[in-house]
From TrEMBL:
<dbReference type="InterPro" id="IPR029058">
    <property type="entry name" value="AB_hydrolase_fold"/>
</dbReference>
<keyword id="KW-0378">Hydrolase</keyword>
<dbReference type="InterPro" id="IPR000073">
    <property type="entry name" value="AB_hydrolase_1"/>
</dbReference>
<dbReference type="InterPro" id="IPR050228">
    <property type="entry name" value="Carboxylesterase_BioH"/>
</dbReference>
<dbReference type="Pfam" id="PF12697">
    <property type="entry name" value="Abhydrolase_6"/>
</dbReference>
<protein>
    <submittedName>
        <fullName>Alpha beta-hydrolase</fullName>
    </submittedName>
</protein>
<dbReference type="GO" id="GO:0016787">
    <property type="term" value="F:hydrolase activity"/>
</dbReference>
<feature type="domain" description="AB hydrolase-1">
    <location>
        <begin position="33"/>
        <end position="261"/>
    </location>
</feature>
Amino acid sequence: MPGRVHTFNTSQARHSLGPRSIWGPPCASKKALILHGLAGSSQTMARVAEQLALEGKQPPRYFVSVPELPGHGISPRFDSYCFADMIQIVSDHLIETTYDLVIGFSLGAILALAAIRNIPLSYKSLKVVAIEPPIKLASEIHQYFGGMLSAAAKNPPTPEFYMRMFPRWSREDATLKVLADELCDPLVVDSLLNEGAPWNFTRYLIDIPSHVRVLVIGGDLSCGGTLRIEDLETYPDIDEIHTVEGASHYVPIEFPEKVVDLSLEFCASRSALTCAAVASERVHPALV
């Protein structure tokens, strides 16, 4: 008898954090939460997670948690999906323990930027790295990526498809993305894509808590990146902006070492400042 995919009422989403993949020693001095993108899985962020956990021979090393978002990977399926429930799930993860670093890719970046408003008082400081956040998508870009993700969730392509589309991907990268497609609930893709289409999440760049610092990493527009720097320049709560030359939208797959290096450099910078100092010295976005 074939296995069953269990479907739950959406209200249960707030009461279960679901499965996750873990990297690094639990006794590590730092904790990081990594959030995958739409139609992704914890394994599509494995390169970043592994490098972050193993980076360096000396502390600080990271204990890295990468949850499967609802409707993705081996997480439960629900009868409906919406951004509010997704944000609540991420907020619950941030309440579960105190993280030093949150890295979010694409959808995961948006969820991180939304959820940081709900972090408890136990957080004295938090670094957030938002990779290719779909802050403001033009209609044609939304339709292009939305169509590709929706089609892949309904009828997963072969690894060769992704290797042709993204020449920097290895066969392992492409195979892990195909597996994510196979495990993804098509309903979560269509539901989130249709909510507020075309996406505009600029509201999450305003009034970021003063003890939260934000680094944004974008891909290369000439190689398939979607983040336009001009969409961020008027938001002073963003601390740093970097672009990765040669990267498509899928920066974590193609340049994991760059993501880790930029994240660690960002965490190390101004690390001795108090929360009050961070609040008073918030800088305007700068393309570095």
